[in-house]
Write a structure and sequence with these properties.
The complex is a heterodimer.
Chain A (H helix, E strand, L loop, with lengths): L2 E5 L2 E3 L5 E8 L7 E7 L5 E7 L6 E3 L7 E6 L4 E6 L8 E8 L9 E2 L3 E5 L2
Parallel strand pairs in A: 2-11
Antiparallel strand pairs in A: 1-3, 3-8, 4-5, 4-9, 5-6, 7-8, 9-10, 9-11
Chain B lengths: L3 E4 L2 E4 L5 E7 L7 E6 L6 E5 L3 E2 L7 E6 L2 E6 L9 E6 L13 E5 L1
Parallel strand pairs in B: 2-10
Antiparallel strand pairs in B: 1-3, 3-8, 4-5, 4-9, 5-6, 7-8, 9-10
Classes of the chains: A mainly beta, B mainly beta.
């Protein structure tokens, strides 16, 4: 059974950094593209970043490009989101999600989310 | 940028009702359209992918249709556990544009 567990959230001041982790289990030694999606309090879903299964390709939403970096360590089955120069508008619950691949991209397993609050 | 617009934004319905939620893309996305369900305090759950393919384990009362710019999620007979927020998402254009709709809140009448 696939399980994704995010960690690393917390309360930070504007301009500072934070690194989120997403630990995967139950993947049966396969690797998959992984996404980060965020949800501001009371708001809808916003796609944030994608990393390919081997880590060679990354894509970012315009709102985070140049500040956030997605990476992965497949030996640890973990994906990371390094968030720098944080702003109040980055306050959200951050979810990681697995993409099973194939012709149609979709997010078939999600973690429970980790809350990031950016406030002075 | 591509825009995904859902209608209605909120909907009141009763158990047993047939419900339809619409999603319109600002440009054609073929059938690269996913639907998710989210309950309060929980992560989203994939219901439908490729516009009409039912994700494993999802009840058959959920169905999806559409192609190009107009899509519909149908729940054939509402159950108490279906009251939630529903989001559509396009994955046709570049990952940078993997936009979600604004959500449709389905409430009990």
């Amino acid at each position: 059974q696939v399980q994704l567990v995010e960690s690393g959230g917390g309360v930070v001041q504007p301009g500072t950094s934070l690194r989120l982790s997403c630990a995967a289990s139950g993947l049966r030694s396969r690797t998959y593209a992984m996404h980060w999606v965020r949800q501001a309090p009371g708001k809808g879903l916003e796609w944030v970043a994608l990393i390919s299964d081997d880590g060679s390709n990354q894509h970012y939403a315009d709102s985070v490009r140049g500040r956030f970096t997605v990476s992965r360590d497949n030996s640890k089955n973990t994906v990371y989101l390094q968030m720098n120069s944080l702003r109040a508008e980055d306050t959200a619950t951050y979810f990681c999600a697995k993409d099973p691949g194939g012709y149609y991209s979709r997010f078939d397993y999600w973690g429970q989310g980790t809350l990031v609050t950016v406030s002075s | 940028d591509i825009q995904m617009t859902q209608s209605p934004s909120s909907l009141s319905a009763s158990v047993g009702d047939r419900v339809k939620i619409s999603c319109r893309a600002s440009q054609a996305i073929r059938d690269y359209l996913n639907w998710y369900q989210q309950k309060p305090g929980k992560a989203p759950k994939l219901l439908i992918y490729a516009a009409s393919s039912l994700q494993g384990g999802v009840p058959s009362r959920f169905s999806g249709s559409g192609f190009g710019t107009d899509f519909t999620l149908t729940i054939s007979s509402l159950q108490p556990e279906d009251f939630a927020i529903y989001y559509c998402q396009q994955t046709y254009l570049s990952p940078e544009a993997y936009a979600f709709g604004q959500g449709t809140k389905l409430e009990i009448k």
